Amino acid sequence: MISFLLQRLGLALISLFGVMILVFAMVRLVPGDVVTNLIGLDTNITTERREELRRLFGLDLPIQTQFAKWFGGVLQADLGSSLRTERPVLTDLALRFPVTLQLTLFALVIAIIIAVPLGVAAANNRGKWIDTVASSFALLGIAAPSFWIAILCVLFFSLQLRWFPPSGYALFSEDPIGNLKSMFLPSLALGLSLAAATTRIVRSSLLEVLMLDYTRTARAKGLTERAVVYRHAFRNALIPVVTVIGLQIGNLLGGTVIIEQIFGLPGIGRFALEGINLRDYPVVQGAVLVVAAGFVLVNVLVDVLYALIDPRVRFA
Amino acid sequence: MTFFKQLLRSPSILIGGVLVLVMLLSALFAAQIAPFDPIAFNTEDRLQNPSWQHLFGTDIYGRDTFSRVLHGARQSLAVAFLSVSIALLVGGVAGSLAGFYRGWVDTIIMRFTDILLAFPAILLAIALLAFAGGGFWNLTLTIATVYAAPFTRVARASVMRVREEVFVEASQALGNKSSLILLRHVLPNALSPLIIETSLRLAFAILSEASLSYLGLGPQPPAPSWGQMIADGRQLLETSPWISVGPGIAITITVLGFNLLGDGLRDTLDPRLRKA
Amino acid sequence: MKKQVGILILGAVTLISLGLAQKSGGILRAGMQADPVGLDPHTTNATATRNQLENVYDTLVRFDPKGKIIPSLAFSWRTSKDNLTWTFTMRQGVKFHNGRTLDATDVAFSINRIKDPSVKSPRANSFDQVASVTAPNATTVVIKLKQPFSPLLSKLAFSLNVIIPKEAAATIGTKPVGTGPFVFSEYIPSTRMVLKKNPVYWERDSKGNKLPYLDGITYSYLPDATARSTALRTGTVDWIEYVPAADIATIKRDPKLEVVGGLSANFRSLYFNLKEKPLDDVRVRQAIAYAINPKEVVDVALFGTGGVVAKGTTIPGGGFYSFDDSPYGTPNLEKAKALLKEAGYANGLSLDLKVTSTYDFLRTPAEVLQAQLAKIGVNLKIQAEEWSVYLPNFVGKKFVSTIIGESGQGDPDDYLYNVFHTKGGGNFMSFSDAQVDKLLEQGRTVSKQDDRKKIYDQAQERILQLVPMVPLFHSAQYEGIAGYVKGFEHYSNSSYLGLRTTSLEK
């Protein structure tokens, strides 16, 4: 098991190194640079001044030297400083990561709160109206784009009912209620498609388990249907559900970009988007690296989980 | 014949197929079906409520939203089909090679795939589009790049499974060349998962196209695109919600169609994966 | 020199009068479009940084709401006969937020810091003509110039060219310290910036009341325009910047809200690249100008409120030097078609139009122009690029036609010489006309306003004949405020110095 874990981690590190090279090269291939953006339309700036600014930012060095500098920094937990604000990227990421994490976890919780009871009810009442409702929700929830759901949520919950603020962010440490209120709509918009996907998985894996021998045995023992479902079947049906959810966390992390933009949340996605728009290389590099690291880490965990459930995987 | 009958027996395939077909027909014959010009301004008819004349009302330029949604189907479906085809081709070839030959070919291809998969997809797409600029082809190629990796994975897994089967061993024992074995025996038998993946990826591609267009990285104006229409309608959400609602419904229906088709195909083509 | 500090503090203390009724304070919650681009005012040109920090600092001189230059930290100034030496006399007893009293060496330090290449200020060139800045004593600043440069005052008044205490320079990018009416308290990126009242601020209102009235300002960041105006309407914030054009009517209708603002100092035009065929032919340019209806552009693309139709060239309407006698503005399609035919394009032509997708007000007019020009057989092919891609292309003159513009200060020279002179830095059209050049050069030397006006009228008439660009509109900028927010005045250069006299009267 240990060697399996080490092997997975090793592969993950190789992937991350690849991501670093890729993002580093990509931001530099993008036309336009931070100097152009800083200067804007000020046409009195001479070419020499432009070159001088590039030199001061270290953009005149050979690309491999720039990469070596960045990579060396990353090994010492130094992601460099924003070219525009001169703030250390790591400091800003540390401020923004909790927001994205909170959004992701809330989305996950909302998904589970909706999906588990709905999926169980659907499986228990196969073919009845509740099953139809659950299945329709599952199909439509996956099909509707999350940014569209987001703006419909704003229309309904903020503008009509005025229950939640349409955008903005409150720090949990200062205004916990305000924080929860400001996170609710974004989490709902982000979590709905996951809820839909999870409902399907819960329903189908529960149905599978309910048809298995031990469930029948449990029924034969005279246990109530409720006990059968929750105590026996559900636990076993949970395994594929957990794996699917684990895999979805990575997608959620990526999906936060548009949601953070729409709701004005100070998360990593918006940070990266601003970085791309303004050609702030260290910011884009740092943000992508952190999201990729989170994604890779979750994947390793899921792999390990698989291996724990199904020993055959370890030797594959 | 029996195969098609079997396909048609699946309600998922039937409904999904009908939805996709409706969308395809709207896209192909948008010019004939659409009651109004999707681009020309008609400033007297600005921001009209939905009516029998204008099913989804009109936008700020007085253009009929329904006609624009129909024309937008062209853009969305064309990007989706083209990008998924390219991704299928690239990923299918790479994955088959990796799964069939294993060894260093496999290592190189899969490490590269892992890197692409570890890269946050939407950021990858945004960064690529920032590099290349928006527009139809750039959008298509970007989505293709992002989706090539999952296709590689699916193709590899499928090819690896088939490769172990008896008839391949038999063919090898007969002394056939490996490329011939791959093409004649392995690939045809490894296709089902790829077909299913294609259908589901088409649904994802529609969503991705919409998201990127929403961010303004889609086709050049004034070509209507669903994502861009939702973004444009947003500032008038309260007074004229239909501008955003119409294209949103179109996206949902299209994605629903492809998803149902994918589910149905999975049930029919691959009974081992069949879910209760 | 330092010994005077104590005396100055004493002076300041005795100057503080007591007893006058104060306007009610409160904390203003302001919804902003974007984060500041760094907190060091000297190293950025970003409007967001300027607007959020200009009330933390003061400048040597400053603009009033109409754009006139008035005293600030310097209460008087004079120039030598040769216009090469400017002497400023400083206000006494002004304190930095760190408690130290401001003196002239801080002014010299601040301007020299902007000039210092290692500081990377994008405005180092603003002071290219400055040979030296010195502080002969605590209350006198002397600026020596290499050659006469009358825009010096407007450069000093630009509210990012602020005076900072020299001992805080190293940390000014994380902890702003100034002399302004508000003290920087906290900044959390993408979340908020908190400013608190400076209880010992030097300035008073016309009745002698201490400024500012507000107890503080909390800026929160709402990048999405629709979300921003929704936040104002739902009472989450008291004040927002950049009200989207689509929402102006809605906010005006709401009895509890107000919109202030309007025309600001800028122009937006359809630029032609005169090096590109067929735009090198003046008849083609005129034909396009005759076919365009700028009023429709404003009504349709800018919701009728996002801009003011351009009546003449680049100078916003209503100004002393603006020229309103343009032959264009009301479409004359017959004339346009005739001109095209004459130029050999009887069957129409196809033209590339490059726009940026980043700013709606520069993108949406493209579709209106496309529809208008289609009527004379000109097929506009729109290509939208993200700002970072667009900008280098535009500056490198890699476009056939494009929609863009610039902001001006107040002098006609800003709007005309820079844009239309053969050597003008903003002449991206490659426009070159000897007659226009001569007139614009003349305008720089003549000082009598009426004579100058005649020269600039001639120049503008000639420019309109040759149409290197079709002026479309002047962008309007609006702030949305709740009814209980009183005393906020909109500045034509879009600065928020008006927050100094704002109060909440709930």
Q: What do you see in this structure?
A:
The complex is a heterotrimer of chains A (316), B (276) and C (506). Chain A has 12 helices and no strands. Chain A is mostly helical and 316 residues long. The model of chain A has no long low-confidence stretch (mean pLDDT 82). Chain B contains 11 helices and no strands. Chain B is elongated and about 75 Å long. The model of chain B has no long low-confidence stretch (mean pLDDT 83). Chain C is α+β, with helices and mostly antiparallel strands. Chain C has helices at 4-15, 47-53, 104-115, 152-157, 225-233, 245-253, 282-291, 294-301, 333-342, 360-374, 387-395, 412-420, 434-445, 449-466; strands spanning 27-32, 61-63, 69-71, 74-79, 85-90, 130-137, 140-145, 182-188, 192-197, 216-221, 239-240, 257-263, 266-272, 307-309, 349-356, 378-385, 401-407, 469-482, 485-486, 503-504. In chain C, strands 1, 8, 9, 10, 11, 12, 13, 14, 15, 16, 17 and 18 form a 12-stranded mixed sheet that branches. In chain C, strands 4-5-7-6 form a 4-stranded antiparallel sheet, with helices on one face. Chain C has a two-stranded antiparallel ribbon with strand order 2-3. In chain C, a hairpin with a 5-residue loop joins β4 and β5. At the A-C interface, α2, α3, α5, α7 and α10 of A face α5 and α11 of C.
